[in-house]
């Protein structure tokens, strides 16, 4: 679920991802022309209904604690006035946040801003120790635009977008108990680093039309806001961790969004440290 705030646009996403891939390999990486997404292939018949309600609930094995992480450590960085969105009051609040610098081995540092309700710098570091490794397991392409993480108490939905991830810790407890904390953060980080360049792109909209189906009712009911994030998680599972899905689910994904799958193939989101 994205934040109710404008997101910042950057470089064309496909061009940026291809450049990152070249850096990973030590030289130019052959790939599709960023200006030429694949041509949609018409689907003969629309699906009667989306195969899933929400994609974060499909499998708890897309990413797991056993996967590698790019997170290398956290450092307390004092306190500072920060504006953070808090779903408990459904608005931005300005607080004297505890600040923690999250370091990742494959990209820039990220500032974690922890609500002062946690009570101490040590408590803020504990939140960094809890969530930093999980964020570091996300594909690098989903962390491209990540600059800050907001952490509050409360049993409220997570959020993504605006160069940020929003976490409410009691909701995180629920996700951890269900084994889907990583999957939820893939969804939210897709808002953060994919939405701005993909959701309104003509190529993506053409794929939506050609597929004649949405992967979930959540995507169908919010096609401009949620389709990219709902679709990317199961694309990641299908293409790079198919054993995390049942045979029936793999078939349902392939039938519901063949053109979106082709679009994500073309986009070539950098996946490290996720094994691919």
Main attributes of the structure:
alpha/beta; 2 domains; 276 residues; six-stranded mixed β-sheet
Could you explain how this protein is built, in words?
The chain is of the alpha/beta class and 276 residues long. The protein has two domains: 13-22 and 33-63 and 198-267, no CATH class; 71-192, no CATH class. The protein has ten helices and six strands; from the N terminus they run H-E-E-E-H-E-E-E-H-H-H-H-H-H-H-H. The chain has helices spanning 13-25, 121-137, 169-178, 181-193, 195-198, 202-211, 217-221, 223-240, 247-256, 258-267; strands spanning 71-86, 91-104, 107-114, 148-152, 159-161, 164-168. The protein has a six-stranded mixed β-sheet with strand order 1-2-3-4-6-5. Helix 2 links the parallel strand 3 (107-114) and strand 4. The protein is elongated, with a radius of gyration of 18 Å. The two termini are 26 Å apart.
Uncertain segments are 4-12, 14-32
Fraction of residues in helices?
A: 25-40%
Spatial strand arrangement across the major sheet: 1-2-3-4-6-5
| SS element count, helices | 10
* Through-space gap between termini: 26 Å
Largest sheet: 6 strands, mixed
Question: Outline, from the CA principal axes?
Answer: elongated
Q: What is the quaternary state of this protein?
A: single chain
DSSP E strands, number: 6
How is the topology of this model organized?
Blueprint: H1 13-25, E1 71-86, E2 91-104, E3 107-114, H2 121-137, E4 148-152, E5 159-161, E6 164-168, H3 169-178, H4 181-193, H5 195-198, H6 202-211, H7 217-221, H8 223-240, H9 247-256, H10 258-267
Parallel strand pairs: 3-4, 4-6
Antiparallel strand pairs: 1-2, 2-3, 5-6
Helix pairs in contact: 4-8, 6-10
